[in-house]
Structures are given as C-alpha cells and as structure tokens.
Amino acid sequence: MRLLTVLLLALSAQAEIQFASLGSFRLDSGLTLHDCRIGYQTFGKLNDAKSNAVLFPTWFTGTSNDLRGNIGHGKLIDSDKYFVIAVDAIGDGISTSPSNSKAQPHLRFPKFTTGDMVRSQYLLVTETLHLKHLHAVMGISMGGMQTFQWMVAYPDFFDKAIPIVGSPQLTSTDLLLWNAELHAIEAAKPPRAGMRAVADMHAFALTTPNYRATETTPAAAAKFMSENEQNTPAHFAWDDWTRQLEAMIGHDIAKASNGSMESAAAKVKARTLVIVGLQDHMVNPLPALSLAKLLHCETLEIDSPCGHLTPGCDQARVAAAIARFLQ
Amino acid sequence: MRLLTVLLLALSAQAEIQFASLGSFRLDSGLTLHDCRIGYQTFGKLNDAKSNAVLFPTWFTGTSNDLRGNIGHGKLIDSDKYFVIAVDAIGDGISTSPSNSKAQPHLRFPKFTTGDMVRSQYLLVTETLHLKHLHAVMGISMGGMQTFQWMVAYPDFFDKAIPIVGSPQLTSTDLLLWNAELHAIEAAKPPRAGMRAVADMHAFALTTPNYRATETTPAAAAKFMSENEQNTPAHFAWDDWTRQLEAMIGHDIAKASNGSMESAAAKVKARTLVIVGLQDHMVNPLPALSLAKLLHCETLEIDSPCGHLTPGCDQARVAAAIARFLQ
Fold first, then answer.
1. In this predicted model, what pLDDT tens digit does every residue of B220-240 receive, in sequence order?
2. Parallel/antiparallel/unpaired status of strands B134-140 and B83-87
C-alpha cells in the first residue's frame, strides 16, 4: 500500500513535467548535444502583463520535482503571486542526461557547463514559453551558480536575482570537495561502486560536523550511513553525477571577462539579493560575498550549523527575505 | 644535489629508529600478527629516578620521523627535560604494517585496533625499555585516540595524559569522513587509484573551508591539489591507510565498559589535559570535551580556522600549556 502511494505520487509528479525540445544544442565546448530536451514544471499563473515570471533552476543532483517543497504560499517562492518555472538543469536525469540519452549514453555524453545550462533555459523561456522578460531568476546551490551565470549572460532579461547558497566562482575548498567525489567515481570499477564513498563525503560536507555529530548519535550512525549510501546512487545516476560535478568544477562567471570578477560584476543589471550560509561547508560563501560587495547589493548572511542545508533549516526566514525583496 | 640532501636526511633520520621485537602478537580480534616489530625513537635522557619518560605515539599516517618537529626545546614536548619515546603505531609503514609484512602482506594483514597499538606500546616500554612507569602519555590526532585508550587500559602506569585533537569515541561525522576514505579505496581498481580521491577529501577536512579558501587562491588550487594527490599515496601506502582507518573507525574507549563512557571515565587515574580545536573538522572535539567534563579535568580549547592543524598553527600556545601542565 505504501509502495503504491509512493508510485502514484511519483506518477502524478512526473505527469506535471513538460519538455522543451531544443534539437541539436551546441555546447560551450563546440560539441553538440543531440535531441536536447529540457524538462520544466510551472506553478501559479502568468499575469496579463507577463511581468510575474520567476525562473528556478535545480540544484546539483536535484530535479524540478525536488524543487516543489520550495514553491507555494509561505515557501521560498510564492506561486500565488508568481508564475514559477522550475527547470531541470541539463544532466539531472529529467532533462537530456548521460543516464537517459540514447544517442550519447553515459560518458559518451559530452561535458557541459553552467553556461550551457543557462543558455538552454533561455531558449526554453523565449522559444517555448514565448516570454520576453523574467521578473526574477533564483536558485539554490548549483541553482545559485546558474543564477550568477544568468546575471552575466543575460543581464537585460530579468529584473531581480536571488542566488541562494550559490557561488560565482569556486574556491580551492570547493574544488577539493567536488574533485574528491569525481575522483572516487573515476577510480571505481564499476564506476557506480564509487558512489558509496561519494555518498559518505557528500553527507559529511552538507552540514557542519557539530550539527551531524549532534543530530546523529553514534548508535544511529550505522543506519544513517548505510541508508544514505543506498539512497544516494538510487536517487541520482553516477554518470549524471559525474557530468554535473564537472560543470560545477568549471563554473566561473568571470571566465568570459578574462578572469576579472570586477568586469563580470560590471555586466550585472539585475537587483540582487545574495543569500549565504556563513558555515556552509559545501559551497564556500566567500566568493558570493565578495561579488555582493562589488555589486553593492543586499545580502542575507545566516550563521547556522545547518551549513549548506540552511535554506531548508531556516526556510521561514529565507522566504520572508525573498518575499520582501521581490515586491 | 637537492635529492642527495633529501636522501641523506632521510637516511640519518631512519638511522635513529630502533625496533622492539614482540614476536607473535595476539590481537584484540583473536588473530595473530607474526613477527611483530614496533619502531621507536628516543629523545633526551632518562633521569636517574626514571621519572621523566613521556610516551608519544604517532598520528594517523604519521611516523616517529614525522613527530620530530614536535620534540625539542620550545616544541610541544621539551626533550631537554623529558625522555621522549616517539613510537610508531602498528600499520604506519615503520612498525609491522600491511606494506612491509612478508608473512601477512597487504590486506592479508589482519585488522587491528587502537587497543592493539597501545598494548604493543606497553610491551615496548616494559619489556624492551624496562620501564615500570611513565611520567606521561601524549599524542596528536590518532595519537590522542591512543592516549585516551592508554588512560583506560593502563590507568596506573602513568601520571599525566595529554590527548591533543584526539577523541575517546567517534561521532557520526568522524565515521562519515573515515568511511568515505575507506570506501573510496575499497571501490577502486587498483586500490591505490582510490588514493587520489582520499587525498582530496583528507585535505578538504584538515582545516576549515574558509582557511583553505583563503590560503590557497583559485589560481593556486590546481597545483596545490595535484601535488597533494601525488604526495599523499607516496608518503603512505594505501594498505596501511586502510588498516589504520579501520582502527580509527572501531575506536571507542567505552567498548570495554559495556558502552558506558561514565564507567570508562571512572577507570582513569592520570591527571589529564584535554586539548581540542573547536573548529576541528577531522576529529570532532565534542566527545573529548564530554569526557573532560566527566573527568573534571583541565582543557585547552582553541578556536582557530586551522581546524585539525591547530596544534601546528598554534604550536607556541599548545607547547606552553603542556610545559606548565607537566611540571
């Protein structure tokens, strides 16, 4: 009965996903994604002036289904007021991905960038949804990275930007974490066997150590760890994990400005609210805070042991700041 | 020329290492280590009363050579005053180890515990060095874990204990980290290929993320990472890494007291100074601080972004506290 409920819920959730067909999609690398499809779900209603659309790309290993918990009245973005477009980033297993591409399966799927994700979303918004402007772009974690990328790639296309626990550019500590996960998969045979280490490592970095040590007692640790090791690769395929990791590892919004973050910042036109967790161990907050200084923009800095999970742990506070900022 | 100097230094350092031969050594598991040899180096002079001996076991992946930087006047332990016995923990590549055992090479080397390390050291001290008492036992990181184990295993044998960034019992966050490293090696083919991910992960957890992000700029990150990935497996063999990891994963000084840390604490007779880094992300400080409360003992709690490297970053402060405590 419980399985049936889960299945029905999954089906009903799946049923909401629509797809934009982009055909052959040329990547930053010069290579081409064949039969590129971008998944998305919409929530709320577009108003007559078409001025209330908010784009919400997915986080690393997340799908538009996973975003649902953040959309609705009292949630991060209020779909009573805004027409929310939750979009599946390339490689998330819903949009065209290593795990679902027939033409380019697994590691034959070419590497892509956060720039490619954003350009695919721009095509979805303009050519499939026929919108000429967005009110805002917002995103959590890798969704925040895509938001920063939107700010320099399409600066005139939206009025407000809300990157949440995201980053404009990776630090050495971010690179160590993502490369640790990448190298664990690369060295494993079969590659999926590497996901056990990846799951441990990911859980290790998601919160502060003291948060985990306090929340999960030594007696509960074995169960917590083995469930996490089973659920992680079940939720997200190792090949999708690999290619999305590589997109994050290469992420740097200053790249198109010869490495100058000042020049990148000068491109930005959106009014911006930068939200970070000061104790975030998964996406280091320092580059986002540095860019906020260059932009002279508003920040919400939350000092919580929840670390990278702060937007969830402090949902009410983050939601209130976003609601006020978007008005 | 530089290589020659390094070689001569290595030879001169190696020349100082002596070995205690323990023969067949029965492990906690009931299995036997064949031809068990324990490496050690001594610094300073034993006084006539034989009352100034301090035992200093190695940290995880460290050897008695690596301890040298912490021994001497002005260092963590003053060898002008104390007879310092730096001892190589089982599995460190100097003492009997998976990487150097002819009878039980690689993973045919049986698993061992921190209790086994400590018992081998007790035999070295009593049967080879013919000491009936130690003034103190001290150690850093896994050396601190061994110090906690000494406190419950041989409570009458020494007067003072100084566990530094060690732990009496692992938390869920420690278990996630060490299992991430273990599982990366276990899934890799050949196992040594897993050390690349392990090196990244280890560096990620050694300090706070903000410390690493600030110390190593994005421009310097690639060099830092690749040097670390090469040096880590060159310094310490994957099979030794595996077995010492397993020793830490099983470490719990309450195990012999039916899981009761109160009962374990009641065994302790040594006056104790617990030194922790409050921002230590590699060995969580909470269990050491909880035990310190049970012991009503002195603590030195350092709040430094150096994290697990705090004893090195704050060497003068730690050395001063130890010098005062030992007097």
1. 999 999 999 999 999 999 999
2. unpaired
Kindly report the CA angle at A245 between A192 and A61, in degrees rounded to 5? 75
Instruction: Give the mean pLDDT of B113-127.
Output: 98
Do A204 and B173 make contact, defined as CB atoms within 8 angstroms? yes
How many contacts, defined by CB atoms under 8 Å, are there between A and B?
Answer: 160
Domains recognised in chain B with CATH numbers: 17-173+243-326 (3.40.50.1820)
DSSP B188: B
The alpha carbon dihedral of A137, A270, A283, A121 has a sign of positive
Q: Is the ipTM of this complex over 0.90?
A: yes
- State in Å, rounded, how far the first CA of chain B is from the last one: 44
Query: Which residue in chain B is spatially nearest to A193 when comparing CA positions?
Result: B187
Q: A5-18, pLDDT tens digit by residue? A: 445 444 444 448 99
Distances (CA, A) of B251 to A270, B162, B174, B234, B270: 53, 18, 11, 26, 20
- Tell me whether residues A180 and B187 touch, CB distance under 8 A: no
Report the pLDDT averaged over residues B306-322.
97
Q: Does A258 touch chain B (CB under 8 A)?
A: no
Please state the pTM of the whole predicted model.
Answer: 0.94
The C-alpha atoms of residue B113 and residue B253 are separated, in whole angstroms, by: 11
Query: Cβ–Cβ of A209/B171 closer than 8 Å?
Result: yes
Separation in Å, CA A93 to CA A27, A62, A88, A236: 18, 9, 8, 7
For B227-261, b/e burial (b = at least 16 CB within 10 A) is ebbeebbeebbbbbbbbbbbbbbbbbbbbbbeeeb
Contact between chains at B209 and A173 (C-beta distance less than 8 A): yes
Q: What digits encode the pLDDT tens for the residues A187-215?
A: 999 999 999 999 999 999 999 999 999 99
